[in-house]
Amino acid sequence: MGNPDRGLLDWLDEASAERGLYYANHEDGWDFWSYRDLGRLVLTTAAALRADGVRPGDVVALVQRSSPGFVATFFGALAAGATPCSIAPPFAYQRADEYERHAAQLLETVRPAAVVCDDESLERIRKVAAEVGLGEPVVFDRLVADAEPLERPLPLPKTALLQFTSGSSGFSRGVRISAEALRTNIGGMGVWLGCSPEYPAASWLPVHHDMGLVGFLLNVVVTGFDGWMLQPDDFIRSPLRYLRCLSDRRIVLTAMPNFGLSYILRRVRPADLEGLRFDALRAVIIGAERVDPRVLRDFHALLGPYGLDRGALVPAYGSAEATLAVTGLPPGEGWTTGHPGNADDGDAASLAGTAVVGCGRPLPDRTVTVVSEDGAELPDGQVGEIVVSGVSIADGYLGDAGSASGTSLGGQGLWTGDAGFLRDGQLFVIGRLGDGLKVSGKMVFAESLETLLHQRGVPERRVAVLLGVRDGTPTGAAVFAGVRPEWRRIAHEVLSAWLGDAELLSVEVPQGGIAVTSSGKPRRRVIWQALCAGVHDAQTRPLTAD
Length: 546
Description:
The chain is an alpha/beta fold. It contains 14 helices and 29 strands.
């Protein structure tokens, strides 16, 4: 089972030559890197960083895809006594100008002593680094070309990871995560999931996102089990290749957001799965965004005949400020749904708009409460703000913590800015508190309405719902990316049913025109601010049934 006391660099002392990471290549095969080889590359990278002027306590920025070089730079920075910080490579953004603004803000915030990138990212990140007054980025292969390994790692830095938040509520904020918080979060996930080195795992998640980095890559490497690594665009091009990996390699553990499940449902048919088996899967961790119960049901209906156990679908909840994992459903238990309010009050569903999937119970040494606006703890079933305390809470934000995100860190723990409720010890997450509108005394949440739109056939990533008060008028807006006429009708039916007398708007932008984070979440507050400022006036019309 997982060892909660395992250090972040202990694996270097016992690196296996048989186990390691397998990277998908362009020939539909896999390139193997044993932990022994990765360990040597880590110590070589640490020496190269030291020779490049990196000193204990400095920050090393990684702008790299998932690769052996990423693993070596991340753990090499730690072995050099420095703090790694992963920044999304350009592939994660559709528009160059949007990426450059994002990367410039992050690099300006952390002011790294070194920026290590891959060949693919060099041209773009060189331009951004120059704009913010940083030195020349270094390509990983050139960094390590003539270096010899350090004999032993230096002491770990106080801050073992600078993790940026998703930025769904505005600019991303750098979160300072200590070595102790990172170690205990990885250990807590191991206990929750029953991780053992003999359990193979697979992922297509980007390593600049906390779910892909902490929830998967660091967990796999520190625990020491085989990891099968695909790129996000490998998954987008061929989700069937990912599914074949799960089947052929007898994968036990994988993870993805709700979007990944729904994408598989759109692209894969039962006939494509003939000959595949998913009975080895013990945990498909589902987090990072609200989980749709319809998607869970349909995903199990697709893969269940090929051996997937319903109990292997494991919803979870976490955040960058909590290092990652806060709650999770134990593998094998089976997910459930619930509505807020009392079971017999006849008005329960009005708060959420649709059934909410339970995200499990708190991991060891974590406490989750739901509080009212005045901070009073609420009883089961009542919706309020989710507050987390205990181990693995970040030390704070880097630089100016001012933000409209609604999330804050303090002496009482992490005030998440997320709305939810508890029932029988399990957490049910509804959405962001700032992304809601009070209607007839009840809160309606944007994510709930989006779920209803998806259930009616409007695809994910093609619509974002905004709720707020605009020019003194309660307003709901559906932002469509490449709208189809029937989507307007569906959105009018859903929003008018839930928002009462609120003004309803349709904002129609080109496909790919919805501002999203590097993990694909709508940046609702950024879009809302632009709407209120008149930026989208030419693209805005009343939302009607016609």
